[in-house]
Write a structure and sequence with these properties.
The complex is a heterodimer of chains A (about 250) and B (about 230).
Chain A lengths: L20 H7 L3 H19 L1 H21 L6 H19 L2 H8 L3 H7 L2 H30 L7 H26 L5 H28 L7 H29 L2
Helix pairs in contact in A: 2-7, 3-4, 3-7, 4-7, 4-9, 5-8, 7-8, 8-9, 8-10, 9-10
Chain B lengths: L1 H22 L15 H28 L9 H33 L7 H21 L4 H14 L1 H14 L18 H41 L1
The chains are: A mainly alpha (about 250), B mainly alpha (about 230).
């Protein structure tokens, strides 16, 4: 995968007729390889610059400090705590994840990316990148939040399942909305405004699911239903994104 | 021949008002039986919001299918239809929220109580508004058609969830009316007025408003076309 830009579109025709055998080998670069290449590229850029991750983690830390400060030793009700956690996660998502597509447009690399891989692979790569970023944020934020709010966690596995579901949903919404917003004006404000109605059902579900996960009263299998709902919502969003992403991505 | 259905809409609307104010009995079992008459307006508004959303999403799909060849300009009409329907959806969802709040104050004691149906209508209202905001922030017409239609299609996921799923899986104050979109617990007089008069009247009103809005949009499009190219 050293020179990954393939000469084909995975769903279209060959653009350039390859001449050397090495080039011809590139033609067969599969969909998954293209997606992984986009992901690897983004990851490398992120590891070099650390703009998105640093701002995301710093944002989450700041919000959690504010929460802890406002709480000052008190104990939060599980329902309130669950909602607060996801409010923080929502704002972190929509403050940081728009970066993935906006950066491509701002640095002028979008055209190059457009030529190099098929739209679905780009969507998948960006989605993986956003999932990674948000997973890191969740790994930092959730334990810290549990500690600050002094939440009892009877079953860690349930909480992890629910948080993973919520992260998947938020990342898939942020990816496609980010792609939309990257093409519009007034991006910063717009991203939150048009993203909010899309993720609100998800936020309602995550708040309830997290409350169930940290409450000893919830039934044994409640977490499975909750996490299942979250993953289904994420799946639906990804399905809708795959349908419309090529049209968003190709427009200029 | 347009005057026939427009006149019919007028008569049906008059009939709806008559049905609401004079024909139906004060609903028994409500705190303010006479206040329940507002249901006759409230329910069709909610229906029309959902219909407006479906029409908009359908037209968004048509735009995405045709906008691959922007020079044909076959995407202009569905794009305008989508916008018009979103605008009317915003109007009707605001009306639903307003009439619902009034009834909620009478029946449940508060203008707003975060009932699942109240939450869902307010988020649907935000969806309509978000579409229009996105629309105003893109200048190029083809690009605007692509981006806003894509958004309308993505928004089907939360829209579906909010209209058909959420109010059925969460306990709601809307009672029986909650299990079916139609008022399952209402008596036959209410149902007769709702289905016989209010629903066709509101569908007629929606169609008429769509037509007027479309005439304006197409005129605007032609004017811009002429001035630009």
């Amino acid at each position: 995968m050293t020179s990954w830009p393939s000469l084909t579109r995975c769903c279209g025709s060959v653009r350039t007729v390859p001449e050397s055998p090495a080039d011809r080998a590139l033609v067969s670069v599969g969909w998954m390889d293209q997606a992984l290449a986009v992901y690897r590229k983004d990851l490398r850029v992120e590891l070099r610059e650390r703009t998105a991750l640093a701002s995301l983690v710093l944002f989450v830390l700041t919000s959690l400090v504010v929460v802890g400060f406002a709480l000052t030793g008190g104990v939060m009700e599980p329902g309130v705590a669950a909602s607060l956690l996801w409010v923080v996660m929502f704002f972190a998502t929509f403050a940081g994840l728009g970066h993935t597509f906006v950066a491509e447009e701002e640095t002028g690399t979008a055209a190059g990316l457009r030529l190099s891989a098929c739209p679905e692979a780009i969507l998948a790569g960006k989605l993986m990148m956003n999932l990674t970023l948000l997973a890191v944020v969740a790994v930092v934020a959730v334990p810290l939040f549990v500690a600050i709010a002094k939440l009892p966690v009877p079953a860690v596995g349930r909480l992890i399942a629910v948080v993973a579901g919520g992260v998947c949903g938020l990342a898939s919404a942020a990816t496609v909305i980010g792609a939309l917003v990257a093409k519009a004006r007034a991006r910063g404000v717009l991203f939150g405004a048009i993203g909010f109605p899309i993720v609100l059902p998800l936020l309602m579900m995550t708040a309830v699911a997290t409350r169930h996960a940290i409450s000893p009263l919830a039934g044994d299998w409640m977490w499975l239903r909750d996490a299942g709902g979250l993953f289904s919502y994420a799946t639906m969003l990804v399905a809708a994104s795959v349908l419309v992403f090529p049209i968003i991505w190709e427009s200029n | 021949m347009g005057w026939i259905w427009k006149t019919a809409t007028g008569f049906l609307m008059a009939g709806t008002v008559w049905g609401m104010m004079a024909y139906v009995r004060p609903a028994e079992g409500f705190l303010y039986p006479d206040g329940a008459r507002i249901i006759i307006i409230h329910v069709p508004c909610a229906w029309i919001s959902a219909v407006a959303y479906l029409v908009a999403a359908w037209n968004a799909g048509r735009v995405l299918k045709r906008v691959a060849r922007p020079q044909d300009e076959t995407w202009v009409r569905p794009d305008c239809l989508c916008e018009a329907s979103m605008e009317l959806g915003l109007l009707f969802s605001i009306l639903t929220t307003a009439t619902g709040s009034i009834f909620s104050r009478l029946q449940w004691g508060a203008f707003w109580s975060w009932d699942p149906r109240q939450t869902s209508i307010v988020v649907i209202m935000l969806l309509f508004a978000a579409y229009l905001v996105l629309r105003s922030s893109v200048t190029n017409a083809v690009m605007r058609a692509r981006l806003t239609s894509a958004y309308a299609i993505i928004a089907v996921v939360p829209g579906m969830f909010l209209i058909w799923v959420l109010p059925r899986v969460v306990a709601s104050l809307h009672g029986d009316a909650n299990n079916a979109v139609i008022g399952g617990g209402l008596d036959s007089q209410y149902r007769a007025v709702l289905y016989g008069l209010a629903l066709p009247a509101f569908v007629g009103l929606y169609t008429w408003l769509m037509q007027l809005r479309m005439r304006l949009s197409m005129a605007e499009w032609r004017a811009v076309e002429r001035s630009v190219g």
